[in-house]
């Protein structure tokens, strides 16, 4: 029973291996699928978009496999003689593949046509020469896999011209190696563009709009101007040095990153909760705001950031509060020193 069950997988694998060796269109679909998956990862697609993409790839490749199976069945039944119905059956099967491919192109357009995101990816991509060399090399290997990775159905008459025409037969033993290699290269390309998907994610963050406000006598500063992406703690101190009046701050804050000409809200990790405590800011008093990597759902990449919070000012007891927005700037930069709280409180 187990042996029979195991053989079913072996037979299925032989079928896929046959398509891989003998069907050029199958190899084309496979290579395009790999690059589509890579681009989807680079664009940080949502889970639903991944499902649509995977289903589309499965449908196209399944249609190609069905077309191959039908062609072989027709060839087995009809043989070498011409039959109009056999031709019609093959044409209909090929039409199915074409239809699925057209739908796949439409799905690809809907999923991947993001001019702004693609321009960001291209800008990030061309900044590092070895990324370009990697993708060029992978394309060359992919073309070799598509046009040289199969074997002919017949070897020919063995003459010089015939041998040249059916040269791919020579590399039949290493077809699997080529297949594996092109997939490894595609994965390497994904690592080559590591971080490019994060750039796209940042554009999808919520925009933060806040007025440029300052309160004379109240200062909000980070303990360090620059922090490493591997920081363990970022702290900022909100201090009332000489502002008179009744000022109150809370414990909650927002982190924003400058993306282009706008500020985007950095998402906190689910479960991060701030206590709703009102803290009085009398002259000489202060409050520290701290950011730890565990609080954030993303890793802070290089760039300009702000810790933003609100201050309420009461002219007298019982009066409505006037809210002000203040922020402390800091920069994430590689190899920046580690800063620890050392400001006077």
Strand content: 15-25%
Number of strands: 11
Instruction: Give the CATH level 1 class of the domain at 207-332.
Output: Mainly Beta
Rg is: 31 Å
What is the succession of H and E elements? HHHHHHHHHEEEEEEEEEEE
The chain-level mean pLDDT equals 79
Number of helices: 9
Structural class: alpha+beta
Distance between the termini: 76 Å
Unreliable residue runs: 151-173
- Give a quick account of the main beta sheet: strands, pairing sense, barrel closure: 8 strands, mixed
Mind telling me which CATH architecture of the domain at 207-332 this is? Sandwich
Query: What would you call the quaternary organization?
Result: single chain
Measured as a percent range, the helix fraction is: 40-55%
Described by the principal axes of the CA atoms, the overall outline is elongated
Outline the fold blueprint.
Blueprint (H helix, E strand, L loop, with lengths): L1 H21 L1 H19 L4 H32 L5 H29 L2 H12 L2 H20 L11 H6 L9 H18 L3 H8 L3 E2 L9 E5 L3 E2 L6 E7 L5 E4 L4 E6 L2 E4 L13 E2 L5 E6 L11 E12 L7 E11 L13
Parallel strand pairs: 3-11
Antiparallel strand pairs: 1-7, 2-4, 4-9, 5-8, 5-10, 6-7, 6-10, 10-11
Descriptive key words:
9 helices, alpha+beta, about 350 residues, Immunoglobulin-like, three-stranded antiparallel beta sheet, 11 strands, eight-stranded mixed beta sheet
Overall description:
With 345 residues, the chain is of the alpha+beta class. It has a domain at 207-332: Immunoglobulin-like. Helix content is 48%, strand content 18%. Strand 6 (254-259) and strand 7 form a beta hairpin.
What would a concise description of this structure say?
This protein has 345 residues and is of the alpha+beta class.
